[in-house]
Specification:
The complex is a heterodimer. By secondary structure, chain A is an all-alpha fold. Chain A is built from 6 helices and no strands. Chain A has a single domain, classed as Cytochrome Bc1 Complex, Chain D, domain 2, CATH 1.10.760.10. Chain A is 47% helix and 0% strand. Chain B contains 7 helices and 39 strands. By secondary structure, chain B is α+β, with helices and mostly antiparallel strands. Chain B is 14% helix and 34% strand. The chains are: A mainly alpha, B alpha+beta. The interface between A and B is large, with 46 and 51 residues.
Chain lengths: 124, 617
């Protein structure tokens, strides 16, 4: 038995037992809540990820209960890949909200924090 | 080379690879020589009670120590590696350094902390609550209303940092009313009983909740306080800014600094089943049952987004539902920490860890890592299990208690005297009496271990001069459940009984304190508290082998110690913001008992070791 078999077995041992946690919070896979996000590479994206999951998750991350009650909003996955999404409009929506549907965040975020959030949304 | 020898080589290579990526973790808290230093303020004076943390590159383990009165700190023995080291105290800069550690060789890492304005979101919830306006009776009342209605699903420090105008707060409260849990006790003990108040009396017919179901306790409280809350929140967290005079807890001093906290990162992605952490390596496995056999699968712990870790307090308190820490834990006789299941408890005498699993009571034999399930529950358990001296397993559920005779598989139910009382946690005392906390009633229910007689022990009512007649009326006519409570509720939530002593202990979630009940006489003794606990939402209390009572606090990043003889309460700092700890485990096998604190608000669990004899504190 030669070294090729050893390599094959090593490959098998890796592929047969994929490292489940490889995506974790660094993005690039399926999160615990079933949302696929892009890989977080920049500090801006990581800060945006932290901001999103502290301010936007209530409506924009679905759960079974929210689906049952029909109160889950758009999960914003691939938002900036959609043909009609414009960055100024997204920024305006964050600032102004939607009456009776989405709160206005105009008093919450600094300009840098909005930039971070946009950077994250672009890879979500 | 034979096939079997190749397999041995493959497994060996994998083991070596893992061993090199996961350093061993010291089990001694004694000061080592590898990493020491001094912390001074900008004025050159030494600073006591500053948290200093170190994490090796690629490691899932963060070790933290605190400076003494001379500003000096010393880590325990550390493995070789390149460490990131940072010092942290509220109101000061957070310097970060890198240090290459070599065992047996000393590295001195000194820091100077510059004073800064206090960043509000660096405060824990308890600190935030005590920083809110309290000049008027209305302000003081509204703090109670906020804690009792808006803290269980999301710690106030997580959302009070946000600022909204009136219209936006209205939108948010509308949403809260829709998502308020409503259930069908005892099928789901977490949901409140539709159309009924605690004790079972029916609300007047006709009122429906936002989803068209008969109105429940949670919704009625939200509706009653809605107008007051919107006015208050717009005032303290609205367009004009945060109404806040930051009042962080004092930095720890004396023995409260003589601890070592080792935090273990947990995997974000998990295959399900029972988690198992090996504290010596930081490795995590999950135990599942397939085809009747227990399978153990190791799961890599991959680094998380540091901005969501809680290690930098300026990033504030996270939402507990998104960070994947762990709620319950229990220690096996093999020294491993089992986590991730509901109603976990340890039976060290027999080597088992028990938990609830749907309509089954399930065990892990921690000598062999074998899972065994005992079916037959009519309803799922609530939050507690515990084994009595004869090996029977007790559990709490929506109607009261269940007792499993493990040998025969027989399950017997004991109902609380008062129905719809939200039986929560459970403990068994040394007389084999089983106790359940009745969160909605401010009582504890007890089943006599010899006679099976059920009794209820009432706690004194919570009183405050700031409560108005309408608050007391809503307490009387609507009452409380687990997510919302009328002002005037103590909130005995998690509890346990001293297996070697005479007392039963319960954390008072709404009022802030630890209740003491005499197991011999089945009578209330007293409530222990200190000002820092008022808004800390004390949670799970557990007595160690010396009868010292250790308790977690869901709304404050502190571990508490109550000396039942002297009544002294000592608060030990935890180095992560937003821990939201809701359980606890005590390892009585170490020279000085070790306390384990699971975090639900951050993806970690913590081992707290002491550098002094805690039995004399």
């Amino acid at each position: 038995m030669g070294s090729r078999l050893v390599v094959r077995l090593l490959l098998f041992s890796v592929l047969a037992f994929p490292p489940i946690g490889v995506t974790a919070q660094q993005g690039g896979g399926t999160s615990a809540l079933g949302v696929t996000v892009g890989k977080l590479q920049t500090d801006e994206q990581k800060r945006g990820d932290a901001i999103f999951h502290k301010n936007c998750h209530l409506c924009h991350i679905a759960t079974a209960q929210k689906r049952e009650l029909k109160i889950n909003a758009d999960e914003l996955v691939g938002l900036f890949k959609r043909p009609n999404t414009s960055e100024p409009a997204v920024r305006q929506l964050i600032q102004e909200g939607i009456p009776k549907r989405m709160p206005s965040f105009r008093y919450n975020f600094t300009a840098v924090e909005v930039d971070d959030l946009i950077a994250y949304l672009k890879v979500r | 080379m034979s096939r079997s020898r190749v397999m041995v080589l493959v497994v060996g290579l994998a083991a070596v690879a893992l061993a090199t990526t996961l350093p061993a973790v010291s089990d001694s808290a004694a000061p080592g020589i590898e990493l020491t230093g001094t912390i001074k303020g900008a004025d050159g004076k030494p600073m006591e009670g500053v948290a200093v943390s170190a994490k090796a590159e690629g490691s899932p383990v963060t070790t933290s120590v605190w400076t003494n009165q001379n500003g000096a700190y010393a880590f325990p023995a550390l493995e070789a590696g390149r460490y990131r080291v940072w010092a942290q105290a509220i109101g000061f800069s957070r310097p970060v350094a890198e240090a290459a550690v070599t065992p047996g060789r000393g590295v001195q890492q000194n820091f100077t902390l510059e004073p800064t304005a206090i960043i509000p979101r660096s405060l824990s919830t308890a600190e935030w609550m005590q920083s809110l306006p309290a000049e008027t009776s209305l302000d003081r009342r509204m703090k109670i209303v906020v804690l009792n209605n808006c803290s269980n699903c999301h710690l106030p420090a997580n959302w009070l940092e946000k600022r909204f105008d009136t219209a936006s707060w209205e939108t948010l409260l509308d949403y809260m009313e829709k998502i308020a849990p409503h259930g069908d006790v005892p099928e789901n003990s977490a949901g409140d009983p539709p159309g009924r108040r605690p004790g079972g009396a029916e609300f007047p017919a006709g009122e429906l909740d936002a989803n068209g179901d008969p109105v429940s306790i949670h919704t009625k409280l939200m509706r009653f306080y809605r107008k007051d809350l919107i006015e208050y929140l717009t005032r303290v967290a609205g367009p004009k800014g945060l109404a806040l005079q930051a009042k962080p807890f004092p930095r720890p001093t004396g023995v409260a600094t003589e601890i070592v906290v080792t935090e273990y990162d947990l995997p974000f992605e998990r295959p399900g089943g029972v988690g198992k952490l090996d504290p010596r390596t930081g490795k995590v496995s999950f135990l599942t049952v397939r085809d009747g056999k227990t399978m153990v699968q190791e799961v890599p712990v991959v680094g998380r987004n540091e901005y969501r870790s809680g290690s930098d307090w300026s990033w504030g308190t996270r939402d507990e539902h998104l960070e994947r820490g762990t709620h319950d834990i229990a220690i096996g006789v093999n020294g491993n920490v089992y986590f991730g299941m509901n109603a976990m408890s340890a039976d060290p005498a027999r080597g088992y860890v028990w938990y609830s699993n749907g309509r089954q009571i399930t065990s892990v034999d921690t000598r062999t890592d074998t899972i065994t399930s005992h079916p037959g529950l009519r309803y799922p358990l609530s939050h507690g299990t515990q084994v009595d001296s004869r090996g029977n397993v007790w559990g709490s559920f929506g109607l009261g208690f269940v007792r499993l005779d493990v040998a025969t598989g027989t399950i017997k139910e004991f109902n609380t005297i008062t129905p719809f009382s939200r039986p929560y946690d459970l403990g068994v005392d040394r007389f084999d009496n089983a106790w359940v906390s009745q969160l909605a009633l401010d009582r504890l229910s007890v089943v006599d271990g010899r006679t099976g007689e059920v009794k209820e022990v009432a706690l004194p009512p919570f009183t405050s001069p700031d409560l108005r007649p309408e608050d007391l009326e809503i307490l009387r006519t609507v009452g409380s459940w687990d997510h919302n409570a009328a002002p005037g509720q103590q909130g005995p939530r998690r509890m346990s009984a001293d297996a070697r002593g005479d007392y039963v202990w319960a954390g008072l979630y709404w009022a802030g304190g630890i209740a003491q009940i005499d197991a011999r006489t089945k009578t209330f003794v007293k409530i222990h508290s200190v000002p820092e606990l008022r808004w800390a939402q004390p949670y799970k209390p557990i007595a160690d082998r010396n009868h010292m009572v250790w308790f977690s606090n869901s709304a404050a990043d502190i571990l508490g110690q109550l000396n039942p003889t002297t009544g002294k309460i000592t608060l030990y700092p935890l180095p992560t913001r937003g821990t939201n700890s809701r359980h606890l485990a005590v390892d009585d096998t170490t020279g000085i008992p070790t306390v384990w604190v699971p975090y639900t608000g951050a993806g970690k669990m913590a081992r707290v070791q002491f550098r002094f004899d805690t039995s004399k504190n």
